[in-house]
Amino acid sequence: MVNRENYEKSATKENVLTDDEIEALLDAIKTMYEEFVVKGLLYTGLRESAFHHMKESWVDFDRRLIRVPRKQRCMVCDSCKKPRYTKSGNETKAANTWVPKTSAGTRTIPMVPEVQEILDWYFNQQGHKTVIEQYRWRQNLYNTVRKVGKRAKIDHPVFPHALRGTFATILAKKDFDMWEIKDTLGWKTIQPAIFYINLAGEQIKKSFEEKW
Ligand SMILES: [Zn+2]
């Protein structure tokens, strides 16, 4: 079996969606729950693990913000159940606790218009309190995104981390600068933001050449 983590790391950058592919992906959505997962990942840029742990309390509908906490109790995932230690034995994560991948992952994300309605549907109209109650395993989110990507006939794999990279290019195309992109995506350094700004530029150039 392909190691998913390695696969995603190597493949994310090649699998960032173009504008036409985003349109095809959104057109291929058949259910509200698919819309929640696809738009929820694509238009927040949250890591799959963070999206999986999102709770109603993260979402501030009045101020249109999503706040990723520093830590959160989780009794579900194997990775959350286990405590984590440094080599010298200091605990960096308590047992039964979820933490963002890095400290920069703790952040406030603007709720863009594209995702407002579907978050309102999931948390307010359906009355869900957490994502985990509907998608117990991260694999469920991954499978949903893959399924919609295949249905959209996109000729490369579409998975949560590729949607996160795609959100970075969406921001770049809207002229957000590297610092804003870094903070929104929760990166420690600006290097990945510069990469996605350049990638967005290449995408724009390519589509210009194809269409002119
Ligand atoms: Zn967990």
Automatic annotation (TrEMBL):
The keyword DNA-binding applies. Gene3D superfamilies: Intergrase catalytic core (1.10.443.10). PROSITE patterns: TYR_RECOMBINASE. Keywords: DNA integration, DNA recombination, DNA-binding. One of its GO terms (molecular function) is DNA binding. GO terms for biological process: DNA integration; DNA recombination. Residues 12-209 form the Tyr recombinase domain. The keyword Hydrolase does not apply. It comes from the Archaea. This is Tyr recombinase domain-containing protein. It comes from candidate division MSBL1 archaeon SCGC-AAA385M02.
